[in-house]
Inverse folding.
């Protein structure tokens, strides 16, 4: 599919009623064996004809920041109407700074993606991203430029309906107020909200102040300012990818148990052990290789207290092993105290999950 155009059949999706349920839908049952690739098109319609009031022509002219997006599970949200904006969202909505958003290391986030800015009020930008059956929600935010703290986006859109991935969906989005600045106009000076207010939708009548740049009291609804269209590009199946990656090398894991060095060869490849249906998209590459090798030591007068294995917290997930296509990511932990005298053996010290890379993909790489 060319980036230059969206199929006309997608226009029918605009007539669909889209309900975004905070936290996602409990009905999502797409398989964790699947990795879906989607493309998102942002088409913006902010012009002087549609929004004549205080339309910014220069320093800066009407435009849009880069798109910031996340795919995730129900434990995470980028923003949520009715909730307070995070510090990262505040910095993004007010200044366009996305560092704190992009650096967020949240366990529920699967993929982070961006798209280039749209330098004018009317234009288009495009990005690709990945989801799996355990992380089927997507959230997107784009700042209105210039503005006090206004942005557009979607919160926790579930691209898995029933047991299949949606082919395409288009959503008309409204401007949102982050609730961190009191400015009414596009070019208002900085005026921090004290106290801050929850994230709220901007309508033709709210905020109800004549100075508000989006205040059109004679309209029932604001004209469309932007449309987000999500199109399924491809679905990978883990079982097929495993067969393609069967030639990968074997990992070696060394477990030290009760003072004895035990060396075990593993062959997880991309996931030789599925851990009971992937165990939440995570491949356990070491647990099956760690075995008890010592017996309890008992003195003539009775048994001594066992020492159980203690391990550190998991490290963050590594970057995906590929920059384009399907690869894997790992995380590890280390032994803090080895088991002794029949204590509980150490658990898995490394986990692997599959992931997708799209940062260096050529145009139309994921097209069928």
């Amino acid at each position: 599919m060319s980036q230059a155009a969206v199929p006309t059949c997608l226009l029918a999706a605009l007539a669909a009623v889209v309900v975004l349920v905070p936290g996602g839908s409990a009905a999502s049952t797409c398989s964790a064996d699947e990795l879906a690739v989607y493309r998102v098109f942002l088409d913006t319609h902010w012009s002087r004809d549609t929004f004549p009031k205080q339309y910014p022509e220069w320093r800066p002219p009407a435009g849009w920041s880069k798109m910031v997006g996340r795919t995730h599970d129900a434990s995470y949200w980028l923003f949520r109407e009715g909730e307070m904006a995070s510090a990262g969202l505040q910095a993004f909505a007010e200044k366009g700074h996305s560092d704190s958003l992009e650096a967020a290391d949240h366990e529920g986030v699967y993929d982070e993606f961006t798209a280039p800015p749209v330098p004018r009020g009317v234009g288009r930008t495009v990005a690709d991203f990945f989801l799996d059956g355990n992380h089927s929600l997507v959230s997107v935010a784009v700042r209105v430029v210039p503005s006090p703290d206004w942005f557009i986006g979607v919160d926790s859109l579930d691209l898995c309906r029933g047991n299949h991935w949606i082919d395409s969906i288009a959503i008309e989005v409204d401007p949102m107020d982050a609730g961190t600045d009191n400015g009414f106009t596009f070019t208002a000076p900085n005026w921090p909200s004290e106290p801050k207010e929850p994230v709220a939708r901007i309508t033709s009548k709210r905020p109800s102040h004549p100075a508000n740049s989006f205040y059109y009291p004679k309209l029932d609804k604001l004209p469309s300012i932007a449309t987000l269209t999500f199109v399924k590009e491809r679905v990978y199946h883990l079982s097929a990818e495993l067969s393609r990656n069967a030639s990968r090398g074997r990992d070696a894991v060394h477990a030290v148990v009760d003072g004895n060095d035990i060396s075990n060869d593993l062959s997880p490849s991309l996931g030789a052990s599925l851990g009971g249906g992937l165990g939440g998209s995570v491949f356990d590459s070491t647990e099956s290789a760690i075995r008890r090798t010592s017996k309890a030591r008992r003195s003539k007068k009775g048994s001594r207290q066992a020492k159980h294995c203690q391990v550190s917290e998991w490290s963050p997930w590594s970057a995906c092993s590929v920059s384009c296509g399907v690869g894997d990511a790992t995380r590890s932990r280390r032994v803090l105290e080895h088991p002794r005298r029949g204590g509980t053996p150490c658990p898995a010290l490394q986990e692997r999950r599959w992931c997708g890379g799209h940062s260096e993909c050529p145009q139309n790489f994921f097209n069928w």
Observations:
- The CA atoms of residues 28 and 106 lie 21 Å apart.
- The first helix runs from residue 87 to 95.
- Residues 34-237 form a domain with the Immunoglobulin-like fold (CATH 2.60.40.2130).
